[in-house]
Specification:
With 768 residues, this protein is of the alpha+beta class. Helix content is 21%, strand content 34%. Among the domains are: 166-393, Methylamine Dehydrogenase, Chain H, CATH 2.130.10; 530-647, Cupredoxins -  blue copper proteins (Immunoglobulin-like, Sandwich), CATH 2.60.40.420; 664-761. Strands 8, 9, 10, 11, 12, 13, 17 and 18 form an 8-stranded mixed β-sheet that branches. Strands 37, 38, 39, 41 and 44 form a 5-stranded mixed β-sheet that branches. Strands 40-46-45-42-43 form a 5-stranded mixed β-sheet, with no helix packed on it. It is globular and about 100 Å long. The structure holds [4Cu:2S] cluster (CUK) and dinuclear copper ion. [4Cu:2S] cluster (CUK) binds next to strand 4, strand 20, strand 26 and strand 30.
């Protein structure tokens, strides 16, 4: 210990001063590198446009659907560096998601008919909006397989809520938000009975239904409010995607659909398959809904409840003028409202046109009650010519459309032809086309869903990557391709493989709109956003065991974690006890997360600074269960450990005390004290540097100093204990406490040096 001590500290002390000496630059020239690596001028330009040097930040943050992984991928643009995969519908151990009690409660909200679902098929993330602009507060994402919507708070990028649709058996047309996040749109895909009952397919037309839910959202609480949400009954068509109106179309929503043939399949019975039966008609239906008026009806108590939630039957929707249909191209996919809200664009997967509808014409038709007929459920159909502005030949298999910062400029993904088409929806002219690799699904422009898209970059979320990357077996990574759209011609910049679920939609927000926290308020239940009842302060750690009348016992451990120990380090329980461990991370320093893994109990917690995380299990089998911190949090991280001892029932404690394996002398103790006093001198120098500068003007440094001051306080206490033991002549205890005193000093020094480096790098002023 002593041997390492002074060396380690001088290394620490030197770190701040030798930074400038690092980075001897490679001698090769740009030309040489280009030649050696076979790079063209264009490659180098693309590299320069995407490269973000170490320490620098990206301009945009993307939240991308994680497909079948059930998660949300967060990455930066233009670097395409993945920053985090936010656990949403699927357990994820790094974040403790589905392992701590707090997040298990979130996953439990997503049970379907009592069954726990351990994945999601995430498709469409959507940022919360204020006045049609991303406000940087929340992200919503749907699960297509199990009709659910999740809420992620951008304050900490954690999933806070999962709601299950009370009517649907699948959901595809979500999550899409209205311009002030009044509602989150969520449309069903596979028509199903509204109840959970068995209904034979022979009754498909009468008893199976589609639908569209408007989930009400409370922006202040950051939660969906099922009690205020309402659902439109739709015909048994396969509703596809949705988008909310804005500007002149504010208050309305648009949901396209396919399989308006109402075909039910049965290939094994010799019937033509779904794919034939669902694409036989030339047109399907765009559903137009008036949510603003529906909301008024709900508020006025004029909407009834089914399955405990507001449900607007088609008959009522038609009578109140809330629902209209418009023919769409064959097997349509995607619906996108232009930033100014004047037009709605729909593409047909089996067609080569993007169809541009005029909101003005649609409104006129509704006002004049000019309909060409009704669907089998009595919903009025507006004739195509009374709604269509134009159709533009954009390429075979168009899917989704995004918008530029330039007026009227749109980008449409062309699935079959594997390309992006840039076109003008005002003039109908095609402006440019760019091949992509391969078979693009969605595409996404910067702030592309807002009333003011930023342009600049476009990402193609491709379905196939085929030959783009090093082969790694039959299951290929996904390919997100970054495209520069700042000029007249689109330029491909970068391919990013993603080795998880198939991407669907994504959204990009300006990074400076996000203000995430670096720590929680102390003792925080992050999932419920409130103080945890298990919050524990330093020195107040305790173990409570209580038994009920039947002899069932529960042990609550109120613990803490701080570099580099877990309190308590020894937990004793009895076989059969329910054990509930609660740990509060006492750290305030940035990025000082502690983990907690326990042998054989499926326990792994992530305890970020300030957080309180819990885990509950039954200690079924007697034995010895080591636990430890899973984040390399400090030099003595490996020593951040402990034992859970599960005693057999009726076990009698044998006499005897725990004995250390080492024996120290007075000389050992004195040597350690000498080291500690020298260490203190170095710390004093660092403190003098910090306090002679305007460190209080730097919140990051102020936090570090606060933490360092805490550590020095602990050092003082340990010193006191060492001196008391020394006075008793207990050199073993004296030595161990002297060592602990030094541990606290090292942590204080580490924090102090980080603070000093920060001040030096950020041009702090000398003040005295
Ligand atoms: S869908 Cu996947 S490419 Cu679910 Cu938005 Cu079009
Ligand atoms: Cu805490 Cu490692």
């Amino acid at each position: 210990m002593q041997r390492r001590s002074s060396k380690l500290l001088s290394a620490l002390a030197g770190a701040g001063l030798t930074l400038a000496a690092a980075g001897a630059w490679s001698q090769s020239t740009l030309e040489q590198v280009m030649k050696e690596r076979g790079l063209t001028q264009k490659d180098v330009l693309a590299a320069a446009k995407t490269y973000v040097p170490t320490g620098k930040r990206d301009e945009y943050i993307v939240v991308s659907s994680g497909g079948q992984s059930g998660q949300l991928i967060v990455y930066g643009i233009p670097s395409m560096r993945i920053l985090k995969v936010v656990a949403v519908f699927t357990p994820e151990p790094w974040q403790g998601y589905g392992f701590d009690d707090e997040s298990k409660a979130i996953l439990a909200q997503g049970k379907i008919r009592g069954k726990e679902i351990r994945y999601g098929d995430t498709h469409h993330p959507a940022f919360s909006e204020t006045n049609g602009e991303y406000d940087g507060r929340y992200v919503f994402i749907n699960d297509k397989a199990n009709p659910r919507i999740a809420v992620v708070d951008l304050h900490d990028f954690e999933t806070k809520q999962i709601v299950v649709n009370p009517f649907f058996k699948s959901s595809h047309g979500g999550a899409f938000v209205t311009p002030n996040t009044e509602y989150i749109m969520d449309a069903s895909q596979y028509a199903s009975p509204v109840s959970n009952d068995y209904v034979p397919l022979e009754q498909f037309n009468e008893k199976y239904r589609g639908g569209l839910t408007y989930w009400a959202f409370d922006k202040e609480k950051g939660r969906i409010v099922p009690e205020r949400s309402f659902t439109f009954e739709f015909g048994p068509y396969s509703q596809d995607l949705s988008d909310a109106g804005k500007g002149p179309s504010y208050g309305w929503g648009f949901t396209n659909s396919f399989c308006s043939e109402r075909y039910v399949g049965g290939i094994e019975k010799g019937r033509p398959p779904f794919e034939a039966g669902c694409s036989s008609k030339d047109t399907d239906f765009l559903h137009v809904t008036n949510w603003k008026k529906a909301e008024e009806l709900v508020k006025a108590g004029k909407v009834g409840k089914v399955n405990g939630a507001y449900y607007i039957p088609m008959k009522q929707a038609v009578a109140e003028g809330l629902l209209y249909l418009i023919p769409e191209p064959k097997s349509p996919h995607g619906v996108d409202v232009t930033p100014d809200g004047s037009r709605i664009i729909v593409s047909g997967k089996l067609d080569s046109h993007a169809w541009v509808y005029s909101w003005e014409k649609i409104q006129q038709a509704i006002k004049n009650r000019k309909f060409e007929g009704k669907d089998p459920y009595g919903v009025p159909i507006i004739a195509l010519e009374d709604a269509l502005d134009k159709s533009v030949n954009v390429g075979l298999g168009p899917l989704h459309t995004q918008f530029d910062s330039r007026k009227c400029v749109a980008y449409t993904s062309i699935y079959v032809d594997s390309m992006i088409t840039k076109w003008d929806y005002c003039t109908g002219k095609v402006l440019d086309q760019l091949p992509i690799h391969y078979n693009v699904g969605h595409l996404m422009a910067m702030e592309g869903d807002t009333v003011h898209p930023d342009g600049k970059y476009l990402v193609a979320l491709n379905k196939l990557s085929i030959d783009r990357f090093n082969p790694i077996g039959p299951l290929h990574p996904q390919n997100h391709q970054l495209i520069d759209i700042s000029g007249d011609k689109m330029e491909l910049l970068y391919d990013m493989p993603i080795g998880m679920g198939e991407p669907h939609y994504a959204a990009a927000i300006r990074a400076d709109k996000l203000k995430p926290a670096v720590r929680y308020r102390s003792g925080w239940n992050s999932r419920e956003d409130k103080r945890s009842p298990w919050k524990t302060r330093a020195g107040r750690e305790k173990v409570e065991r209580s038994c009920d009348a039947n002899g069932k016992c529960t042990v609550h451990v109120y613990g803490t974690t701080i570099r580099s120990h877990i309190v308590p380090e020894i937990i004793e329980v009895t076989e059969g006890d329910t054990v509930s461990l609660h740990f509060t991370n006492l750290e305030r320093a940035e990025d000082e997360t502690h983990g907690f893994a326990l042998y054989g109990q499926n326990v792994q917690l992530s305890i970020e600074p300030g957080k309180t995380a819990s885990t509950t299990f039954v200690a079924e089998q007697p034995g010895v269960y080591p636990y430890y911190c899973t984040e390399f949090c400090s030099a003595l991280h490996l020593e951040m450990q402990g034992y859970l001892l599960v005693k057999p029932k009726g076990y009698k404690v044998k006499a005897g005390e725990m004995v250390e394996g080492t024996h120290y002398t007075e000389a050992d103790y004195q040597k350690q004290v000498k080291t500690n006093l020298e260490t203190q001198k170095v710390i004093d120098q660092v403190v003098a540097f910090i306090t002679s500068h305007n460190y209080k003007d730097f919140p990051v440094v102020a936090d570090l100093v606060e933490d360092a001051t805490d550590q020095l306080g602990f050092a003082k206490e340990a010193r006191k204990k060492a001196e008391e033991a020394a006075a008793r002549g207990d050199w073993n205890k004296a030595m161990l406490w002297a060592n602990q005193w030094w541990q606290y000093q090292v942590k204080a020094a580490d924090l102090g040096l980080r603070a000093k480096t920060y001040l030096e790098e950020h041009g702090a002023r000398k003040i005295n």
